[in-house]
Amino acid sequence: MIYEGKAITVKEIEGGILQLNFDLEGESVNKFNRQTIEDLKAAVEAIQGQNGVKGLVLTSSKDVFIVGADITEFTDTFKLPEEELVAANIQVNKIFSSVEDLPFPTVAAINGIALGGGFEVCLTCDYRVMSEKAKVGLPEVKLGIYPGWGGTVRLPRIIGADNAIEWICATKEKKAPVALKEGAVDAVVAPEKLLDAAVDLVKRAAEGELDYQARRAEKTGKLLLNPMESMMVFETAKGFIAGQTKGQYPAPIEAIKAMQKHAGMTRDKALEVEAKGFAKMAKTSIAESLIGLFLNDQLLKKKAKEMPKTEPVKKAAVLGAGIMGGGIAYQSALKGTPIIMKDINQAGIDLGLSEANKLLAKRVDKGRMKAADAGKVLNNIIPALTYSEFGDVDVIVEAVVENPKVKKAVLAEVEGLVSEDTIITSNTSTISIDLLAADLKRPENFLGMHFFNPVHMMPLVEIIRGKKTSDEAVAKVVAYAQAMGKTPVVVNDCPGFLVNRVLFPYFGGFAGLLRDGADFQKVDKVMEKFGWPMGPAYLLDVVGMDTAVHANEVMAEGFPDRMKADYKSAMQVLFENDRYGQKNDKGFYAYELDRKGKPKKTADESVYELIKDVVGEAKDFSDEEIIERVMVPMCIETVRCLEEGIVEDPAEADMGLIFGIGFPPFRGGALRYIDSMGLDKFCEIADKYADLGKLYHPTEKMREMAKKGEKYFG
């Protein structure tokens, strides 16, 4: 053994060919943490001290090659002063460059996922061989940063600037055939032939058959673009990406700028440019929010794993077909869990099957699924007008009309027809789980499972625990949600649960703005610029004015001190005039189908006449005031959910808002948004609107935390 560390070993495998193997001790995957970086430095120094070396192969003992840098270390590292962060990156790059500068050919044998720093170390090698099952990529801009260990320098010189821009800015993981076609790897082989293929490449290069030094010179030299080509490639890309990101995600643009700036430089100078730009991005609040989002997601997955072990759901059922029931059935069947779709009439069944069939057809049309596989998925949806096949169902999702009397009747009926072990859930969006459980014989086996529409697109499922719900039932439904490809957030019962409880104060702030003379179209534009996928008026149209009015009544009854308005809102007027939004093509806006069959929003001036009696004299509110008046109520209500134990921790609250209602990811969620400005500043802003009512009153604990300088995310 030439070198043996906690993350890396080096040994001779045959005739002067060495193997540098990644195998991080105590971890299921390899990642670039401090230990791995220290080991790599020591390993290269040990290799440099060897005589008679003909070549080096980089390998991994784990199923993945290297998943990337250890993101859990980012939060501390990024707190360093900018100049120290630049220096730290340059130090890592010196280690990576020492691999690249070894006086013999090097080959990376990529057996599994190699992302971020894991792929950047592969780029230091002269050649790359990839398993058919592996994936590679540079996804750093998802975290508000860009590749900082040579990715923006080496990749353009290997695959061309235009391809490199697409790899870095689109962040997609590239499968082996694409990586080979675009020149990022030199060969793709079966997994069992990977090491042999890598060794063969080393031998051919060492014997002079392959000119590895010419390859290396291209990679460490200037980018081969003349000034006109450079301008065309980079300026065109910046314009396109700016249109895609709308100025809300700066990292992709900054990555292109870095590549453009160091295109005419050799490696070491180019790496300095990259390091400075990387540090600049790492210090932004956007990077802090997006890294926090990633860590929050990891926390949710960890909490799900820590739940009581449970048998997987082998068969499910949904009560109530239609669009929502069809969407739930589709998602379950698509992910491999057969599901009965029951309705009281054939028309409902037909609508549900039509919805599932439509979604499958889209997958086939886009080449994401073969027609035969789509047929198998559809066969996993079992239509039913009776309960005859419910004897062996593990989990039932009730998705009938949002009416407590109807739901209670259906739940009582199905409970009497299934086994004592069957878990029954309700897809209610607002009705109390404890209320629905009141007449059930086995309330310990009952809980909420709230899907968001459209089911196939929205990643969140709220799992609502009632007072008598058992831990086993929660664990079973969490596991089922994960099996469906969803992110479950467990919350306790209250009106609106987490997402709707927090959403309606946002709508309340919007309603107050309209009452005071704001133009709803301007409010929408300001909030979309803020980062929401759609403004509040547009969102109400998508939700449905009838649904929103009903939910608002539930919220007002549950929290009358702050959610019961003393005025008639524009939303109520539109509802009373049968303007339900997209579902009947008229709400705040009018809708018509575009070429793709999707509803297209257009302005409808008649709305202003319709709501004139419930809105004040027209007033031009500033963007800042609009943002504050809709965001402050939402943020305070999120804090209340945390303080009251509706959610256990800030991560769950923020992830619920991001995955459930499209809270701008680059702002990290309501609680991280508060942290970004500081609680003292937030309370100061809220106090400006204290006369608007309790929706704008921070809690006492918020004020205490503000005095102490505390944050929700330490």
Automatic annotation (TrEMBL):
* 3-hydroxyacyl-CoA dehydrogenase C-terminal domain segment(s): 496-591
Q: What class of enzyme is it?
A: lyase
User: InterPro entries attached here?
Assistant: 3-OHacyl-CoA_DH_CS, 3-OHacyl-CoA_DH_NAD-bd, 3HC_DH_C, 6-PGluconate_DH-like_C_sf, ClpP/crotonase-like_dom_sf, Enoyl-CoA_hyd/isom_CS, Enoyl-CoA_hydra/iso, FA_oxidation_alpha_subunit
Pathway field of the UniProt record reads: Lipid metabolism; fatty acid beta-oxidation
Task: List the lineage, top down.
Answer: Bacteria, Pseudomonadati, Pseudomonadota, Gammaproteobacteria, Oceanospirillales
GO BP terms: fatty acid beta-oxidation
Q: Where is the 3-hydroxyacyl-CoA dehydrogenase NAD binding domain?
A: 315-494
Protein known as: enoyl-CoA hydratase
| Top-rank lineage group of the source organism | Bacteria
**Any GO CC annotation of this UniProt entry:** fatty acid beta-oxidation multienzyme complex
Q: Name one GO molecular function term.
A: delta(3)-delta(2)-enoyl-CoA isomerase activity
Specify whether DNA damage is a keyword of the entry: no
